[in-house]
Amino acid sequence: MEQQDRTRLTGALKRESVKKNVAAIHVSGKLSLLQRKLSNVLLLNAYDTLTSQSSHRIDAQTLCLMIGYNSNDIDTLKAALRGLAETVAEWDMLDEAGRQEWGVSALLSYAKLKGGVCEYAYSPALAEKLHDPKVFALINLNIQRQFTGGHALALYENCFRFVKTGSTGWWSLDIFRRLMGVDGSEYYQSFKHLNAKVIKPAVAEVNKVSDIIVTPETRKMGRAVSDIRFLIRRNPQLAILNIDDGEGTRTSRTYARLMELGVSDRLARQWISEHGEDYVAGKIDYVAGQPEVRSPAKYLSRAISEDYLPADKSASQRSNDPAIKDRVAKLKRVQSLVQSRSPTQRDADKRLFMSQLTDPARRLDFEKHGWMSALNADAIFSFWAELVPDDEALGAGV
After folding, report:
1. Concatenated DSSP letters of 11-72
2. Which pLDDT value is given to residue 119?
3. Dist. CA 42–CA 19, nearest whole Å
4. Which CATH number is 1-141 given?
5. What is the arithmetic mean of pLDDT over 225-239?
6. What family is reported (predicted)?
């Protein structure tokens, strides 16, 4: 197995924010959460050379790391890229001379995966619009990774650019439905349904996980709601997403080693906080001793969550500890079951499981580690044992 270079974030990828064109934000409402995050990271990666290069490249592992997608399921990544290539971007704006300009383009003109690298391109017309600094809003990538709902991220993107003015201004419900990507649904023509299923959940999530607080206001024509706007203010608590958990963490040798492996800042601090420097440092040493590892960052995540041990210890400890053997077997079985599900089923499984997690720490751990979440291991085993009751591997000892 050929050893790959360690994943590093360089150049534009080191930035915390991506400049995103207002027009692009307006037309991306129908993207799934994964596609929306993917779109932002691809734009960030390409930004410096948007108009000077016809195509752009990014390591697929780095791409997954930046959107918080820690899966070997390449089919889901392919589907997300396909969705971007099939989604139409439409802009309607004033040019430098004050003339109205309308245009339409696919979000990506093409994308391909080859040799662990994602190559993609924008149409020249869209690239020009995306690169125009006069119409950009800043989207914080640390914040976008916290979202679990596509409507919430869409609302955040469309509200954030108005944070300085304090209000989005009035949108007709038709425009708002379009921004949220539900304009083609008969169900959401009813404001009651739109409010219950889109507005309230999206507002709650934006206010919980982002750096702004939004408050919806409506106005009526007759008895029916006709327009909506959002009042916006900074969230004083959510300097939290850029929180510094103590500068000591960031100046430690263990933190520096995690950065060298391409681990995100937040995840590095989380691991050190949860497990302690010595434990994490030991797992880094373990991974460094595995020369055939293709993705050190991903392997390290498993080493930490599954407590991988050096050969001289694991041979005796793992073979003689039934509990460890049972846990490892169940984790492998869960991964196998997950891979056997369709992308739609996998998304539904995750949402159903997360709806059962009331503890914020457990939710955060699952958001970061998915089905490999050590903090939720027992709950994960029980969930899959109920979902697949005839599975003998999960039935024992649950």
Report:
1. GGGG-SEEEEEHHHHHH-TTS-HHHHHHHHHHHHHHGGGTTT-S-EEEEHHHHHHHTT----
2. 95
3. 11
4. 1.10.10.10
5. 81
6. Belongs to the initiator RepB protein family.
